[in-house]
């Protein structure tokens, strides 16, 4: 169930990207969802059909296929890739996304995305939040 919950979280984040894309990929994903649009809205809501598929051992494969379709769209769509992130710790030029759970971590406060390996090195916390706090402190004194 942990893997299914994780996959549902990924699918929700991917749905957020496709929901803002003008390419029509969300319509295609909706077709593949078989009228289960709640999968894009809440990772914690399950239908009886979902629970039956979990029991039958096919639900995880269903989710993986949806995630593969949606992530491939995001990686290859100009509009979606522009909504990606650059790691603010290492500043490497590769674009990272919040749904890449195996390699990224997200700040709980500002939602910025970092490489897991970079975040592990920085003990101070999120550099974006630190910059924002510093800026706010400067504005208080001026």
From TrEMBL:
SMART domains listed in its UniProt record: C1, DUF4206
UniProt-listed PROSITE patterns: ZF_DAG_PE_2 (PS50081)
Annotated Phorbol-ester/DAG-type domain residues: 72-126
GO molecular function: zinc ion binding
Protein name listed in UniProt: Phorbol-ester/DAG-type domain-containing protein
Top-rank taxon: Eukaryota
Keywords: Metal-binding, Repeat, Zinc, Zinc-finger
Xref: PANTHER family: PLECKSTRIN HOMOLOGY DOMAIN CONTAINING PROTEIN (PTHR12326), PLECKSTRIN HOMOLOGY DOMAIN-CONTAINING FAMILY M MEMBER 1 (PTHR12326:SF5)
InterPro entries: DEF8, PKC_DAG/PE, RH_dom
């Amino acid at each position: 169930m942990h893997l299914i919950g994780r996959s549902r979280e990924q699918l929700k984040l991917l749905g957020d990207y496709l929901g803002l894309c003008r390419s029509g990929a969300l319509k295609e994903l909706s077709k593949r969802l078989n009228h289960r649009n709640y999968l894009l809205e809440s990772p914690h809501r399950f239908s009886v059909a979902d629970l039956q598929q979990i029991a039958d051992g096919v639900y995880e494969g269903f989710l993986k296929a949806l995630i593969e379709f949606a992530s491939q769209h995001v990686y290859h769509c100009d509009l979606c890739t522009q909504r990606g992130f650059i790691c603010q710790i290492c500043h490497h030029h590769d674009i990272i996304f919040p749904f890449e759970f195996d390699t990224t971590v997200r700040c709980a406060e500002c939602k910025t995305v970092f490489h897991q390996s970079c975040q592990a090195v920085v003990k101070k916390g999120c550099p974006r939040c630190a910059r924002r706090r510093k800026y706010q402190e400067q504005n208080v004194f001026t």
